Amino acid sequence: MTSTRILLPSYQLGFNLHEGRPYTMRRIANFKALTAFDTWICGTEGICLFIAVPMKSDLQCDLKKLASLAFDRIDWGAATIQRYHAITPKLDAATIQALRGLYLWIFVPPTLWPFNIQDVLDDCLLALENRKKLNANHRLLIDLLPEPPSDAVCAAAAEHERHVQTGNYEALLKTQAKYAQHELAIRNDPELKRQWAAIKDAFDHRKYADYKGLIRRRMLVERNLRPSIPVNLSEPGDVFQAAFDAFCLRWNLYGMQHDDPLPLKLAVNLTAYGTMIHIPSYWSFDPKRDIRWDALAKLHRVRVPGRQGAALAEGLAERIQKAEKLRHLDQEARRLRLKGDQKHKFLCQGLGWNVETSPKRITRLRAEFKSCEAA
Predict the structure, then answer these.
(1) What's the CA gap between 186 and 180, in Å, rounded?
(2) Hey, is 16 helix, strand or coil?
(3) Could you give the 3-state DSSP secondary structure of residue 298?
(4) How far apart are the first and last CA of the chain?
């Protein structure tokens, strides 16, 4: 049973939610009306209603939220959430606050993670479970990690992940005819079958497949800035991966699932740092017919903080200069003990603005760059 508090102005009509009958509360201090279900407290500023409402636990809500994400997040994330809820009642407020930002990232779609958030949180929880403090590495990563993306960004990324999980890019792409043509051409190609049979003869390929029977080629990275890809011919795993990568290159494949080739698709993917478009080398790309640019722009722009462009950049640079000048003018005004209209006139003249300028404009300028001033 959880209590919910609602603060009402003291002049408003009170309403008993359980009994369904309205009644008026006067502005009388220390007045109480008690029932078996709720408590009204009337003070000089307002009425506070405490309602006992059966609610799901935070743990249940968090598990439900995780279950809504793609890529089986609930399967590999539930234990971490349960550990977090088990340990937090034993922690001091400062430690809980330090962990909170990291914990909120657990519910961000992994597409947007800059590193494995869960690994770091698990390590923090392990230290705390062993009655140790968060170490310097924990605190550094927690400090550097930005606030989790907004709900709108997370919702868009979560929907995108669900499409990616099923290989469904139709929301962003107009045609799959080129993919279907390539798939038809290679699926029954005797040379592909011969090469795949040779790989299976040389290796126990099932060792390299996941639980769905899927073997993936080595993934590439943005700008093709790949780390070194050594091949140690004395290591069977290295040789298999090199052979499989060469096979996938020859046939433009993402991988193999059992004995079925998986051709590369024209794909659009969100990453933690941006939006990537991958055009397979076999694809005769037509920008007008192949991509739904409006949908792609909508997906990408959900993370863009605001409008951009040359004129806006110039305006920002000018506001930054004005804000710095305003900071010095504020200091001088305090030194001269200026207040009211005298201070406003002094600030406007210093900024080169008309003295009739609204004080709100100065307040907005001061607020916009307040964080920079604090730094």
Answers:
(1) 10
(2) strand
(3) helix
(4) 44
The residue behind tokens 């992994």 is: 110
Query: How does DSSP assign 209-269, residue by residue?
Result: --TTSEEEPPPP-GGG-PPP----TTSHHHHHHHHHHHHHHHHTEEEEETTEEEE---EEE
Report, in angstroms and rounded to the nearest whole number, the Rg of the chain calculated over CA atoms: 30
Which token pair is 169?
A: 């890019």
Tell me which residue has tokens 């790949």.
Answer: 226
Residues sharing a CB contact under 8 Å with residue 233, sequence separation 6 or more, in sequence order: 239
List beta partners, residue 47.
8, 42
Instruction: Identify whether the C-beta of residue 226 lies closer than 8 Å to the C-beta of residue 198.
Output: no
Token digits of residue 255: 């991988």
pLDDT tens-digit readout, 11-52: 333 433 333 333 333 333 333 333 333 334 444 444 444 433
Q: What angle do CA 227, 164, 121 make, to 5 degrees?
A: 65
CB-based burial label for 245 (10 Å; 0-12, 13-18, 19+): middle
| Segment 175-216, tens digit of pLDDT | 788 999 999 999 989 999 999 999 999 999 999 999 999 999
- Kindly report the pTM of this predicted structure: 0.66
Phi-psi region of 131 (alpha: psi -120 to 50; beta: other; left: phi over 0): left
Query: Cα torsion for 82, 85, 86, 90, to the nearest 10°?
Result: 160
Q: For 147, list phi and psi in degrees, rounded to 5.
A: -60, 145
Question: How many Cβ atoms sit within 10 Å of the Cβ of residue 42?
Answer: 20
Compare 50 and 292 and report the one with higher pLDDT. Answer: 292
Q: In angstroms, what CA-CA distances link 227 with 39, 255, 290, 354?
A: 65, 21, 31, 58
**DSSP symbols for 48-68:** EEEEEE----HHHHHHHHHHT
Which of 93 and 44 is assigned the larger pLDDT? 93
Residues 235-243: contacts with CB under 8 Å, at least 24 apart: 236/203, 237/208, 239/203, 240/199, 240/202, 240/203, 240/205, 240/208, 241/208, 243/199, 243/202, 243/203
